[in-house]
Amino acid sequence: MKQFKRNYLFITLSFVSILASCKKGKDPEFTLPTQGVYVLNQGNFNQNNSTLTYYDYRAKTTTPDLYQSANGSKLGDTGNDVGVYGSKMYIIANNSNRVNITDAKTAKLTKQITIAQPRFVVFYDKNAFVTSYNGTVSVIDTASLNITKTITVGRNPEQMAISNAKLYVANSGGLDPNYNFDKTVSVIDLTTLTETKRITVTDNPISLAADGYNNIYVISLGNYADVPAGLTVINATTDVVRSKPVVNLGYNIPIAAHGDYVYFPTTDNKIALFNAKTQTLERANFITDATAVTTPYAISFDNLTGYLFIADAKDYSSNGSLYAYDANGKRAYTVTTGINPGKIAFINK
User: Fold this and answer.
1) How much is the pLDDT for 38?
2) Rounded to 5 degrees, what are φ and ψ at 30?
3) Residues in Cβ contact with 229 at an 8 Å cutoff, skipping those fewer than 6 apart
4) Given this model, what pLDDT does residue 259 score?
5) Are 228 and 239 in contact (CB under 8 A)?
6) Cβ count near 273 (within 10 Å)
7) How much is the pTM?
8) CA-CA to 307 of 20 to 30 Å: which in 136, 200, 278, 301?
9) DSSP calls for 69-85
10) In what order do the strands lie in the sheet containing 157-163?
């Protein structure tokens, strides 16, 4: 985990999932379908202090670690990803080499699956897909909760995104001790569950997002020397690199897309608003009030409430915060989280 300790405690992999639309924000008090929001707190590497914060929209109450409360045991070391799919929640504990599968509403453990250094999880049809630093993607049947197939991809795969019945996997090579990074994105056919090709992008790709215009956005960290961090846009219909827009990338680089927009942090910790339709930067900062985010570590959007959530890791060693922003970019409320809040997931009624 040499490279992890060197980079990933300071450069987040987030997320992420789905982000902001331009619909008018709603008060969670009056939104019926959504029950609450989970925040997976990464904790500190090798300290086994990952936690799962839960905020209840209606009661406006916070449970600091719902996993510990529900199971009487710790979640694991280095919580890296969380996803809700149907009645189950999948929690990745990277340094504990396991996937915790729980009841989505109670966080009560259903099953633990051992995978070597698991990283991220996404879902399609009846399967969950989990990347592993050993260069594979594990396919988990969401009914039996068993691994049914293991797909070989590039070195040290990170985040994934789905578009046009294809799974795109960022192959980082981030653990290479000589900084000889991978620079490919694997394409997996979700019908045959086989890798069909690898697309060359900028060195050390880690973060992916898919928009509604058949584009995959890939953020790469570069090689920390003569190859800078960069953004690559792939056409998900042809699997050809469409462009490499010049953008101002921050050190914490979660990226996500929703509707016409793509969102990512900049070097001054603002949240850039990139127009997916025109492929241009529309606004330097989504946030329009006087509030600021110290260390943006995860971003996600609740489609049912219309709120954009940003997790702030602050100093990486103390409790972080979860900020809720309305569609106009104004902060509505704040929730205290655990250390290094790195992923966000929503649970509905």
Assistant:
1) 98
2) -110, 10
3) 202, 219, 220, 221, 222, 249, 253
4) 87
5) no
6) 21
7) 0.90
8) 278
9) HHHSS---SSEEEEEEE
10) 157-163, 166-171, 184-189, 194-200
Q: Taking Cα atoms as reference points, which of 126, 54, 61, 129 lies closest to residue 99?
A: 129
| pLDDT tens string 37-81 | 999 999 999 999 999 999 999 999 999 999 999 999 999 999 999
User: Is the pLDDT score of 9 beyond 70?
Assistant: no
For tokens 């910790």, the residue is: 269
CB contact set of 300 (below 8 Å; sequence gap of 6+): 15, 16, 17, 18, 19, 256, 308, 309, 343, 344, 345, 346
Class of domain 2-348: mainly beta
Phi and psi torsions of 5, nearest 5°:
-65, -30
Q: State what percent of residues in the chain have pLDDT above 90.
A: 84
Read off the DSSP letter of residue 308: E
- d(CA 261, CA 280) in angstroms, rounded, equals 10
DSSP 8-state symbol, 32: S
224-265 pLDDT per residue, tens: 999 999 999 999 999 999 999 999 998 778 997 888 999 899
